[in-house]
């Protein structure tokens, strides 16, 4: 249960209004540590409430009467920046706390106008935040907390130089929080560069209680388009389909032309169209969204029912981030792997590694009927 004594009076009132009572495992572990101003590496599977785990204590600490920037949250993609900003806004309601999203590629003048509103919290991508610090438009000398979300992805994108520059521009004793579904040795080494003492706050997959069911479907290699069409008919809720094949994603556009409930995001999709398609998916206007791993992070669809692997995940990180789109906060969900006969052994290896080999069931679709074998 949430101990409301953790919270200041205004934040306490907001949480009581929202009837927020039950903390997830990672929130229960992380919130007290963050409130004690510990530097932490926060690790928990996708969908377990990591964002609120650092947002709650940050909001509790914000002085809404001050015009100073007090907290900075860095994220690797504009989609994730948008999602975190939405979470902050949702949980501040009419408290007077101001938050500004700052992303690369967006109109610089508009972002400067947002900063003129004196936000107490900035959520941004590393490169754009670093640029605005260099322009002296973001002042770091009073920032008490710096969060680096999806730190493993930031390392993968080789954005650590920007992150290092940002952290070094801040206070020597500012609190640093790294957060991700997977924490590697590089993330630990990065933390050591800035703080001699830090705490690893971790919740393992086996500690997470969810109601996700696993299935697989065996197809011929050239039937991947057809299986997407058929599943979009047979499945009731929204589905997020992942593929490693950029060429296949590009050729999927003909499905969209014939079915308004299906949409595709590929490498050629313009940024504005990509944002609009994700928005339509969030609103429920699109039933099935087909994408690369671009949407495996930074997209939270409240009632997403199914994740479909049109190609098998290539590594553990891909497996966790894709599957983490469903079963969030303990909700029900389905995960379906599409495999050809020659890759059944590979599927077996993956399911064994992730300890789901005794849970997965085969689905067959014949004569317009979908059955579990």
List strands and helices in order, with pairings.
Elements: H1 9-17, H2 25-35, E1 40-43, H3 50-61, E2 71-74, H4 78-92, E3 99-102, H5 108-115, E4 121-124, H6 126-134, E5 145-149, H7 151-156, H8 160-168, E6 175-180, H9 185-194, E7 199-202, E8 211-219, H10 224-234, E9 239-242, H11 246-251, H12 253-258, E10 262-265, H13 271-283, E11 288-291, E12 306-309, H14 316-323, E13 332-340, H15 344-353, E14 361-366, E15 369-372
Helix pairs in contact: 2-3, 3-4, 6-8
**Widest beta sheet: strand line-up:** 10-11-9-12-13-8-14-15
| Proportion in helices | 25-40%
CATH class of the largest domain: Alpha Beta
Q: Strand-residue fraction?
A: 15-25%
What is the count of DSSP helices, taking H or I runs of 4+ residues? 15
Could you state the order of secondary-structure elements as H and E? HHEHEHEHEHEHHEHEEHEHHEHEEHEHEE
CATH architecture of the largest domain: 3-Layer(aba) Sandwich
Coarse shape = globular
CATH topology of the largest domain: Rossmann fold
Question: Kindly, what is the distance between the CA atoms of the first and last residues, rounded to a whole number of angstroms?
Answer: 41 Å
Give the rounded overall mean pLDDT: 85
**For the record, what is the CATH homologous superfamily label of the largest domain?**
P-loop containing nucleotide triphosphate hydrolases
Helix/strand/pairing class, anyone?
Answer: alpha/beta
Report on the biggest sheet. Answer: 8 strands, mixed
Give the tally of structural domains. Answer: 2
Q: Uncertain spans, ≥5 residues at pLDDT below 50? A: none
| Rg computed from alpha carbons, rounded to a whole number of angstroms | 21 Å
| Strand elements, count | 15
């Amino acid at each position: 249960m949430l101990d409301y004594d953790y919270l200041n009076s205004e934040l306490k009132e907001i949480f009581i209004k929202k009837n927020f009572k039950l903390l997830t495992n990672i929130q229960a572990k992380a919130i007290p540590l963050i409130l004690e101003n510990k530097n932490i590496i926060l690790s928990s599977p996708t969908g377990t409430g990591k964002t609120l785990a650092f947002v709650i204590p940050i909001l509790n600490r914000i002085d809404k009467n001050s015009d100073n920037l007090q907290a900075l949250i860095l994220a690797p993609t504009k989609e994730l920046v948008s999602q975190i900003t939405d979470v902050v806004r949702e949980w501040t309601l009419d408290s007077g706390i101001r938050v500004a999203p700052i992303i690369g590629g967006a109109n610089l003048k508009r972002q400067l106008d947002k900063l003129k509103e004196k936000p107490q919290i900035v959520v941004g991508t590393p490169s754009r935040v670093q640029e605005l610090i260099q322009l002296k438009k973001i002042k770091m000398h009073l920032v008490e907390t710096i969060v680096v979300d999806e730190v493993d992805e930031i390392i993968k994108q080789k954005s650590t130089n920007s992150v290092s520059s940002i952290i070094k521009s801040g206070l020597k004793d500012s609190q640093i929080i790294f957060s991700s579904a997977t924490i590697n040795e590089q993330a630990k080494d990065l933390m050591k560069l800035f703080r001699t003492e830090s705490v690893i706050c971790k919740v393992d997959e086996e500690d997470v209680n969810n109601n996700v069911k696993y299935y697989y479907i065996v197809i011929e290699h050239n039937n991947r388009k057809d299986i997407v069409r058929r599943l979009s008919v047979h499945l009731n809720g929204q589905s997020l389909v992942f593929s490693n094949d950029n060429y296949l994603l590009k050729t999927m556009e003909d499905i969209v032309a014939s079915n308004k409930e299906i949409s595709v995001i590929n490498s050629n999709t313009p940024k504005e169209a990509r944002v609009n398609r994700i928005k339509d998916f969030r609103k429920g206007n699109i039933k099935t969204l087909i994408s690369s791993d671009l949407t495996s992070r930074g997209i939270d669809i409240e009632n997403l029912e199914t994740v479909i692997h049109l190609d098998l995940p290539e590594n553990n990180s891909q497996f966790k981030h894709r599957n983490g789109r469903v079963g969030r906060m303990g909700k029900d969900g389905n995960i379906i792997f599409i495999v050809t006969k020659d890759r059944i052994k590979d599927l077996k290896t993956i399911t064994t590694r992730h300890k789901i080999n005794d849970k997965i069931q085969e689905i067959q679709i014949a004569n317009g009927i979908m059955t579990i074998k």
